[in-house]
Amino acid sequence: MTIRVAIAGARGRMGQEAVHTIMKNTEMELVAVLDYKDIGKTLEDTNLFPPSYGAPIFTDLTELHKKTSPDVLVDLTSPESVYKHTKEALALNIRPVVGTTGFTDEELEELTAISKESGLGCIIAPNFAVGAVLMMKFAEQAAKYLPDIEIIEMHHDQKLDAPSGTALKTANLIAAVRPAHVQGHPKEKETFPGARGADYEGMRIHSVRLPGLVAHQQVLLGGEGQLLTIRHDSFNRGSFMSGIVLSVKTVMNLKELVYGLEHIID
Ligand SMILES: NC(=O)C1=CN([C@@H]2O[C@H](COP(=O)(O)OP(=O)(O)OC[C@H]3O[C@@H](n4cnc5c(N)ncnc54)[C@H](O)[C@@H]3O)[C@@H](O)[C@H]2O)C=CC1
Ligand SMILES: O=C(O)C1=N[C@H](C(=O)O)C[C@H](O)C1
């Protein structure tokens, strides 16, 4: 069976790469896209894609669903709109595969409940790159032995959310195996606000934004006389595409929400 895919955010950095990936995949069909501009046109009219990219562009998901009936919605939009899109997709019986970051814990809980109640699969993956998933899992394992941890995430300067979804997911995985505790000197005082980064149960998260970067993270685990550094780099957005393809295929057989690619890769 061919999987009918729609992409939200198709004109963006990730969206464009995802459009090419789905177009090349013989088990999938790109039936429509959701974005802000060029509504009523097709992808080939945008001058961003080659002729023959005929998927129509919509701005409204209900309308998109009515006209093109996708099985899966891949969301690569913005922290501002992703919660609404995901909730709406579930209500329309479309399985969401979400790469967009910036969910609150409450939003994740609510979407998990909706997905379970409806029995409709959903994947929310803060990072689709297999190397990044391994970096997070290795950090989780190492945290049992070296529980004093700082996370440094580094991204391009157009990123809207901080800390990154990957850094939050990493902290979330580590927090499940590491008792919360204050790190550094108990009387430590910031003489300049923000110097020690964000505080996640005592772990510190630092966000770097610079032109030239794509997506990079290192997890520093310190112990007496030693430092373990676990680092992952995405040098281009091609690094995320195999994770998107795997998620689109997998979500078709899921009956509830899965948060993180670590639950679906072997
Ligand atoms: N999970 C993962 O592996 C990855 C996730 N991301 C995340 O994906 C998201 C997109 O990243 P980029 O492509 O760099 O952003 P971008 O800014 O280049 O692209 C976003 C696109 O979404 C569209 N858009 C925004 N709001 C919309 C709405 N309400 N309806 C329809 N279209 C809308 C914009 O017009 C634009 O075309 C970000 O949240 C980023 O953190 C990025 C890389 C990897
Ligand atoms: O905005 C990005 O670029 C990325 N966002 C995701 C995140 O917030 O972790 C994934 C990846 O790091 C790239």
TrEMBL record:
Gene3D superfamilies assigned to the protein according to its UniProt record, in alphabetical order: Dihydrodipicolinate Reductase, domain 2, NAD(P)-binding Rossmann-like Domain
Function: Catalyzes the conversion of 4-hydroxy-tetrahydrodipicolinate (HTPA) to tetrahydrodipicolinate.
GO cellular component: cytosol
Protein name per the record: 4-hydroxy-tetrahydrodipicolinate reductase
Transmembrane segments: none
EC number(s) from the headed UniProt entry: 1.17.1.8
Subunit structure of this chain's protein: Homotetramer.
HAMAP family cross-referenced by the UniProt entry: DapB
SUPFAM superfamilies, per database record: Glyceraldehyde-3-phosphate dehydrogenase-like, C-terminal domain, NAD(P)-binding Rossmann-fold domains
Family: Belongs to the DapB family.
Involved pathway(s): Amino-acid biosynthesis; L-lysine biosynthesis via DAP pathway; (S)-tetrahydrodipicolinate from L-aspartate: step 4/4
Organism: Planomicrobium soli
Positions of NADP(+) binding: K41
Residues in Dihydrodipicolinate reductase N-terminal domain copies: 3-128
Residues that coordinate or bind NAD(+): G9, A10, R11, G12, R13, M14, D38, G99, T100, T101, A125, P126, N127, F128
